[in-house]
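User: For my dataset I need records formatted as: sequence, then C-alpha cells, nothing else. Please produce one.
Assistant:
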Amino acid sequence: MPRFLHTADWQMGRSFSRFEAEDSAALTEARFEVIERLARLALEENCDAILVAGDVFDAQTVSDRTIRRVFNATRAFAGPWVMLPGNHDAALAESVWSRARRLNAVPDNVHLALEPGLTVLSDQGLAILSAPLTQRHTYRDLTEPFDALETPPDLLRIGLAHGSVEGVLPEEVDATNPIAPDRAERANLDYLALGDWHGTKQINPRTWYSGTPEPERFRNNDAGYGLIVDIEGPGGLPAVTLHETARYRWYQWRETLAVPSDLDGLLERIEGLRESSVLDIRLEGSITLADDQRLTEALSVAEARFRCIACDRTRLQLTPTEDDIASIQADGYLGEVIEELRARQEGDRAETARDALALLAELLRNRSEVAR
C-alpha cells in the first residue's frame, strides 16, 4: 500500500515585520523547523514519498542562505521529495529554482517539477502528474492536460497542483490559477494534492488542500497540519490522516466588554491558551478603572508567557465607578477632571481622552499606594 505525505505553502523567506524583532525571528525559525518535523514524520510513518504542492518559497528574491537551509532541512527523510512551483515561486526562466540548482543546493532525492508532465517513482508505486505555475497568475486550468496524460497502469495516478478550486474557495481567492473541482474524476486520479489555500481542506474524497504546516496569519482555517495519505492501489479510495505539525498557534479575538463577567471570561480564555501562542486581541465596549488594572496586569503576565500578544484597547472606554474614584482618592478638582475625560471618550479625540484617563488613574493609584 503506497503511503505519502502531502504538504504545501511553506513560503520560506516570509518576514514578520509587524512583530518585534525577537518574535519575528522566532516565527521565521519555526518555518525551518517545520520542514524538519515533516521529514521526521514521513520517516516515522514509513512514507514512500513527500509531495510539496507549491509555494516552497515566499518569493523569487529569497536569500541564498534561505535556499540552502530549506534543502538542508529535508535531510531526515532520504526518500523522494517532489516539489512543485506555486504562484510565489513560479518556474520563471530565471527563478529561485534555477538559483537553487546553480548553488548545487538541491539533493539528489529532491525532484523539482518545474515543467508540466510526469515524475515516475516506480519503486514507490507512484506516478506524479505535475502542473507547475510558470508565472504568478494564469487564467486557464493547468491541470487539464492530466486528463490525457498516460501513466503506467500499476502505479497510482497522483496529481500535484497549486491554485484555486473553482466555486469552492472564497471569491477573493478564486480569481486566478483555476482548477476544476472534478479534475480528479476527469483525469482518473487516485488523489489530487493541492496547495494555495493555507488551511487543510477536503474538496472531495480524492482532492485535498494540505494547508501550510506552520500557521503564519490570523485566520481560523485549520492550518498547521501535514496529510498522510494511504491508497491500497490504483482505483482505491484515499485514507487521509491529519498530523499536527505547527509549533505556534495564531488566534485573533474581537471582544466586547460590558460587564465584569465579560472580562472574567476573556482572562480565563487567555489563561487556557498554550504558551506557543500568537494572540491578537481587539477590545471595545466599556470597563471600570479597577477592571482596566486587572486587564493590564493579566496582559503583562501573558506577554512573558506567550510567543507574542498584542491588545488594541483604543475602542474600549474607561467608565470610573464611585468605588474607583474613592480608591484613588480623586475628590474635588481631580474628580471633575476624571469625569471630563470620561465624557470626552465620546468625542473626536476619544483615544487621547482614554489614554489620559488611564494615565491619570495610574498616577493617582500609585500616589495612594505610597501614602499608605
